[in-house]
């Protein structure tokens, strides 16, 4: 079957980045079609009614990185985008119990002073230190990476321009290098003496980021900057939850793009990228339909694209090997529960939280606890005591569940993945029991009663969302796979060795997270080629 319409661009995948790319191209007057294999748009930014009346964020759960520029350019607030602020989180710390993560720095430092006066004094300096580097990284987000090994005069000029525009990075050059090359363990140890402050500050890179790394892996300190990657001081609103769930974001992007003629199709799986004379000229769908376009853009991961969709002969062997070698086989799980009441963690009142339940609780008592959970997994076992982030979004957004009911999502580590690992129903059950047992240690009155339950393993993220190795980021965010090396050296500018074939998803710079940036940058590159 041959489609009648020809497009300027066809986009494989309706994740939020595919939609951002499509919306900007459509806004620029291009005729664009987004093809999504699932029955819903959004990829890993999805909200699904998996039980009647319950809207569950089946993958991403926090609105923390979506870039204000894109929200404002595409007027997403007109189409339902809304950030719901959340009250301060709580961290359960070894030998201490709940520590409230007050948003006011002075109040947080007063908590830290309980563990170390020196750490309490160091914390504002640490934040100022990150804040000094953040604008440089924020600027680099929007930069189409330039290959430093390309010595052509044109490229040398571009490199010189990049250097000049970022000359304010030179005085902090060594700090930047430390951040992108050191492990989170070593980095926080440089700043803080107490184990309590180290785990609170280092938790995201240590465990919550969805990487295949340990706390000792070089380059993991970079993710300490994550919270600084979005400037919330503007009309696009702050961070927190996405009202109606994370799926509201892609829905809003698609609706915004539709004003400019952006077409989207769900239940539309691409089987092959059609390459003629070294150039991508369209796609063949499962079922045989052919859709031709001047540019083919992949929101699907580079791993899936080059393993399954592009004919082997179309890309050089060394490139394909490099793509196959991208690391990021993750071992994080996510459990969703429908319950009648939130988990009653002990000690909240005494910690100054009052009678409220926190929307987000981090159960990661120490860095060595997180590392032990990792070590269990490395030796092939489900972590005996998993660490986890427990979120009850229904405490802040009542649109997600029926009256009087709650959703709890538990994101943590680890469940062994990859070849030879036990993925049976019994192993899932064992994971669930360990998670429940671990929570019960911190919430003795937790009755474990649930109405509905979903256990998501990395293999589920691979199968349902087609995330390579279950990686939320389409590959780890470590220095060897960042900037001009993402997804692989020589092709960080959203192009591929196949002419007319581009990348626009988390595989490309600056990587994963619901940011919209890969989609935006790719749209600029594709537009120039059309
Ligand atoms: C468990 C989990 C928790 C996370 N938590 C957060 C969080 O709290 N905050 C945050 O900012 N980020 C979070 N992330 C990361 C974030 O969700 C992703 O990095 C981001 O959504 C990736 O977006 P994308 O559009 O680049 O790719 P994807 O969302 O992966 O979209 C790619 C799309 O391509 C489609 N596709 C693939 N192959 C084909 C094909 N052959 N034909 C047609 N379509 C195809 C897929 O179905 C998918 O919809 C989380 C991710 C996971 C998995």
Walk me through this protein's architecture:
It is a single chain. The protein has 530 residues and is of the alpha/beta class. It has 3 domains: 2-48 and 62-85 and 238-326 and 468-529, FAD/NAD(P)-binding domain; 116-219, no CATH class; 332-416 and 418-456, no CATH class. The protein has 15 helices and 18 strands. Strands 1, 2, 9, 10, 11, 12 and 18 form a 7-stranded mixed sheet that branches. A hairpin with a 2-residue loop joins strand 3 (47-51) and strand 4. Helix 1 crosses helix 15, helix 3 (105-113) packs across helix 4 and helix 7 packs antiparallel against helix 8. It is globular, with a radius of gyration of 23 Å. The chain starts with a strand and ends with a helix. Flavin-adenine dinucleotide (FAD) is lined by residues 12-18, 35-38, 43-45, 59-62, 64-65, 210, 269-270, 299-300, 304, 309, 334, 461, 465-467, 472-473, 505-506, 512-514, 518. Residues 12-18, 35-38, 43-45, 59-62, 64-65, 210, 269-270, 299-300, 304, 309, 334, 461, 465-467, 472-473, 505-506, 512-514, 518 line the site of flavin-adenine dinucleotide.
């Amino acid at each position: 079957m041959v489609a009648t319409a020809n497009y300027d661009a066809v986009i494989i995948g309706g994740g939020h980045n595919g939609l951002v790319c499509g919306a900007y191209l459509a806004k620029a007057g291009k005729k664009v079609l987004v093809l999504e294999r699932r029955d819903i748009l959004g990829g890993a930014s999805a909200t699904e009614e998996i039980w009647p009346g319950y809207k569950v964020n089946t993958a991403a759960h926090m609105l923390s990185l979506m870039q204000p520029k894109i929200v404002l350019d595409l007027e997403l607030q007109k189409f339902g985008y809304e950030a719901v602020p959340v009250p301060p989180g709580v961290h359960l710390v070894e030998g201490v119990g709940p520590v409230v993560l007050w948003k006011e720095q002075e109040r947080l430092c007063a908590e830290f002073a309980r563990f170390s006066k020196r750490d309490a004094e160091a914390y504002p300096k640490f934040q100022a230190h990150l804040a000094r580097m953040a604008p440089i990284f924020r600027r680099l987000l929007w930069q189409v990476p330039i290959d430093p090994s390309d010595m052509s005069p044109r490229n040398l000029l571009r490199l010189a321009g990049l250097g000049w525009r970022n000359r304010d990075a030179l005085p902090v050059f060594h700090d930047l290098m430390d951040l992108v090359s050191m492990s989170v363990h070593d980095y926080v140890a440089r700043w803080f003496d107490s184990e309590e402050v180290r785990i609170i500050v280092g938790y995201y890179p240590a465990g919550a980021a969805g990487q295949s790394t340990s706390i000792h892996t070089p380059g993991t300190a970079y993710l300490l900057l994550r919270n600084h990657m979005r400037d919330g001081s503007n009309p696009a609103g702050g961070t927190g939850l996405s009202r109606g769930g994370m799926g509201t974001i892609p829905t809003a992007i698609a609706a915004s793009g539709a004003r400019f003629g952006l077409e989207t199709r769900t239940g539309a799986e691409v089987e092959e990228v059609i390459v003629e004379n070294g150039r991508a000229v369209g796609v063949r769908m499962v079922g045989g339909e052919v859709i031709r376009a001047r540019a083919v853009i992949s929101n699907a991961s580079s791993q899936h694209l080059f393993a399954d969709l592009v004919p082997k002969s179309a890309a050089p062997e060394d490139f394909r090997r490099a793509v196959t070698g991208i690391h990021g086989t993750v071992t994080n799980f996510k459990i969703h529960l429908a319950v009648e009441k939130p988990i009653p963690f002990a000690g909240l009142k005494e910690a100054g939280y009052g009678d409220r339940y926190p929307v987000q609780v981090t159960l990661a008592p120490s860095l060595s606890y997180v590392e032990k959970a990792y070590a269990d997994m490395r030796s092939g076992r489900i972590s005996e005591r998993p660490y986890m982030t427990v979120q009850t979004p229904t405490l802040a957004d009542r649109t997600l569940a029926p009256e009087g009911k709650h959703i709890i999502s538990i994101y943590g580590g680890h469940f062994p993945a990859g070849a030879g690992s036990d993925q049976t129903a019994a192993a899932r059950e064992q994971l669930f029991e360990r998670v429940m047992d671990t929570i019960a240690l911190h919430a003795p009155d937790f009755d474990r009663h649930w109405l509905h339950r979903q256990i998501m393993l990395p293999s589920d993220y691979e199968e349902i969302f087609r995330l390579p190795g279950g990686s939320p980021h389409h590959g780890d965010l470590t220095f060897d796979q960042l900037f001009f090396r993402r997804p692989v050296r020589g092709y960080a500018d959203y192009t591929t060795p196949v002419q007319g074939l581009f990348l626009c998803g988390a595989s490309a710079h600056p990587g994963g997270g619901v940011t919209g940036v890969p989609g935006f940058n790719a749209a600029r590159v594709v537009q120039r080629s059309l």
